[in-house]
Amino acid sequence: MSDVAAVPLLDLRRAPADEIQALQSVAARVIESGAFILGPEVEAFEKECADYIGAPFSLGVSSGTDALLLALMALEIGPGDEVVCPTFTFFASGGAVWRVGAKPVFVDSRPCCYNLDPASLDTVLGSRTRAIMPVHLFGQCADMTAVQAIAADRGIPVIEDAAQAIGARCAAGAAGAIGLMGCVSFYPTKNLSGFGDSGLITTGDPQLRTRLDSLRVHGWGPKYYHARVGGNFRMDALQAALLRLRLPRLDELAARRRANAAFYTEVLTGAGVAVVQPSVCRGEADGGTLDLDGKIGLPAQCASDHTYNQFVIRVPEHLDRDRFRAGLAERNIGTEIYYPLGLHQQECFASLGHRPGDFPVAESAAASCLALPIFPGLTGAELGYVAEAVIEIAQRA
Questions:
Q1: What is the pTM of this model?
Q2: How far apart are CA 115 and CA 381, in angstroms?
Q3: Does 264 score more than 70 pLDDT?
Q4: Comparing C-alpha atoms, which of 180, 207, 308, 190 is closest to residue 255?
Q5: Domain 17-106+113-249, CATH number (from 3.10.330.10, 3.40.640.10, 3.40.50.2300, 3.90.770.10)
């Protein structure tokens, strides 16, 4: 009988004692420096992130959402333009497009991995399409080989929404270093976890990098002279300094997440009829089909190096996700629904005229997905407790 009483979805307090002491020392260093916005700490962090991701340039910004907004502004996307993005994603993807006055054009997902389905792009790309914004959802790269090929054929820039996926890789390269620009978030729940809002934007284009640098500081260049209108998208020096301390451990922590995911996959798959491991999506050769067959579906690898920002299962309809989740809550196991609605179902996008059934895979995922605890600080006993609870509830149904 396990002596585990509760398992949180995420516990940010589980940091090693030596890291806490080092973070406090770093914070003191920044306070003593008197340089609190941009400056040497941010410049050093930008260089270290560019080296880690494999992008020629990176710029620290105020949040992952602002990175998306800044990328769109740098391409001068606005009213009358369209930007293609998946409907099954966090709100910031479509919200940033709307904020610049452009129209978000939603596409469906692959059922195996929840990421954008490249096969759907040809039906929505047109003369007004100014960018494609694939999302590397839950820490797993979208099929960037297919997306890049389609975009290159039509001369459309690709903005990677890599908010959840720093450190992920696929055949096309590292998340954030494949498209024209990549956008990363350091929100506290992300794998590279900050201490508030902050983000990063990457690019390989030196002229674009100069424009982004200007736009993040109200469009100036030189100081107090404005050739364009930008915004206040600057990164705080304290965030950069604290993140610099954590960056070298990112791969180690991602390895723990993968080990936790492997444990879940092995135990839940081995439970028999109640749980099944879906087929691995291999890109264009596999259309991304997944038959849940009335069982719990685990996330597929999709031929990418998954970093498991979230570990998301799919609860089949006959189990009733709300009841399933309530059963885990009764056992004091934290879960979350990422995401209960596709963007096309959000009230603020009602004017786009979408109807139920327009994006069946995304709607199915929104109705069935449930995230389990996956963070690297979980103990073996806690992982076992979660897996046992999932199996018990599924087999009771």
A1: 0.92
A2: 31
A3: yes
A4: 308
A5: 3.40.640.10
